[in-house]
């Protein structure tokens, strides 16, 4: 479990590829101070397991599904990546619940400056749109952000100078792809409702008419 508050920008030192599988080595002196084998680290929003480490870098395995389904397929040696350790139980919770399980890849449609903010509009797969709401939470490359605009197939976020400097989002331009994780609470609510109203024991299914009839 993560919060979406990026702790460090790491640098990809090496990528050892075998077919679609990759062993990734990432330089990250700050977050390695208390690392252990098997720890979870979010790399651009993807939860990965530490398989080895030194005082300067750690390695993780990317399985084919991760390579195919996330923006990590586009990183190269020398690329910077967002890093966050798993959430500590006794720490401050400054972002939102982030699992590190990417829901899909978004494409930056536009990047526009407005005084001290930069607005990114990101196109997303249609099946993810239902999990978004104005002023709701979203994780973009592992960074906890707030939704400021919505269309049928995109959302807009506003980035302050600190976030632009401390995360890799500031390096992104129109046409680049990013990892998107929707608000996990919305996904759980949907699944619970679907299981309840579409079970074999329920004569009714969840629909717009059903919700209206029950006061929604």
Notable traits:
216 residues, mainly beta, Elongation Factor Tu (Ef-tu), domain 3, 2 domains, 6-stranded antiparallel barrel, 6-stranded antiparallel β-barrel, 4 helices, 12 strands, 39% strand
Helix and strand layout, with pairings?
Layout (H helix, E strand, L loop, with lengths): L7 E11 L2 E7 L12 E4 L2 E8 L3 E6 L1 H6 L10 E6 L18 E11 L2 E7 L13 E4 L2 E8 L3 E6 L1 H6 L10 E6 L1 H14 L10 H6 L3
Antiparallel strand pairs: 1-2, 1-6, 2-5, 3-4, 3-6, 4-5, 7-8, 7-12, 8-11, 9-10, 9-12, 10-11
Protein name: Riboflavin synthase
GO biological process, one term: riboflavin biosynthetic process
Organism: Alkalicoccus daliensis
Span between N and C termini? 32 Å
CATH fold-level assignment of the largest domain = Elongation Factor Tu (Ef-tu), domain 3
Strand portion, in percent?
Answer: 35-45%
**Corresponding CATH architecture of the largest domain:** Beta Barrel
Strand order of the largest sheet: 1-2-5-4-3-6
The total beta strand count reads 12
Number of separate structural domains: 2
Q: Quick one: overall form? A: globular
Helix content: 10-25%
Low-pLDDT parts are none
The sequence of SSEs as H and E is EEEEEHEEEEEEHEHH
The helix/strand class is: mainly beta
Radius of gyration from the alpha-carbon trace, in angstroms: 19 Å
Lumazine-binding repeats: 1-96, 97-193
Enzyme class: transferase
Keywords: Repeat, Riboflavin biosynthesis, Transferase
Pfam families: Lum_binding
